[in-house]
Amino acid sequence: MRKIRGTIALILALCLAGITAYAVYGYLNKPRSKPVAAPVKAEKPPPPPIQKKFSQSVDAGMRAVTLSLDAAAGMPHALSAGDRVDVLAVTPAPDLPEGRITRLLLTGARIMAVEDDPQTKGRKARERSVTLMVTPTDAAVLATADPAAKMRLILRNPEDETVKEVPVTAFAPAMGIDVFRPQQRDLETLIAPGMRAFTLEVSPTDGVGGIFQPGDRVDVIVTCPWGNISLQSQDKPGETAEIKETHRNSRIMLQNIRVVATNRSLAWAPGPNPAAKRVTLEVTPEDAERLTVLADSKKGRNMIRLVSRNSRDHQHLATPGAELIDLLSERRPYMRVDMIRGPLRKDQTFYR
């Protein structure tokens, strides 16, 4: 009996040991669940960066000006933002067909943007827009010159801060390149108070090869024909007259007259000594009347010529004039008489 109870106890112990071993084995081989992480609070995404406006890239006190330029002739190769350029303006030359004048408008302007013409639609751009940063004064200069001038850009080193004055240059096909000299046209400075301006046509034989400059001094010589006439009736004015003899006389009418302008000085012309076709003299009102009656009597073959003189020589000389008949013949006048008969009057010269 005791053996049976011992056997039963042993069996129960073995069963309990097996159950315990199985439970331990199952516990050890059971997949363990991962630890649950503590919930993390969701952070807000950073706000998108504020898009900077193009106008905010303009420096304080400066302005942005856009120019449309020819991509082939008006712009250097491979321009980009940050480059510095000089701006030239090319305009027609006054009084010269096909002439051109080039002026330097701006120096060292910084490029803000370069864009191709959007209307090209994939083709090679013919025009490019260049935006420059300039001062308000320079912006006004560009706005004034842009409609009438062809703009050209000259690329320069961005570290080059030198500013050099460049003279205005002019070009004419027949005359080449020369410095353009602005012409004086202000009558307040050309004509002195109390004086008058009188313009005469001159020839290449006047003066020194027809060359006159403002400030020159000249004498005015008048050559005109004159003669004695014989009337069929000495007592009735308006009767048919007959010219008995003709003389030709040259005389200095005015001396030490100042040249105030020429047709060349009032319009650009290259070269230091261009010949003039018209000369403007500064004369008194009385001398203007004398020149007018002489100049308007050219149908009578009057001739007015200018003789150049030293600008520092202000001496007035008394000259008798010259008679053509005295130069070509041996006769010399010894008496000149004014003959008056009623309303008629004539000069009678007697020769030896």
From TrEMBL:
Signal peptide coordinates: none
Domain annotation Flp pilus assembly protein RcpC/CpaB: ranges: 53-156, 187-295
Coiled coil regions, renumbered to chain: none
Name the UniProt record assigns to this protein: Flp pilus assembly protein RcpC/CpaB domain-containing protein
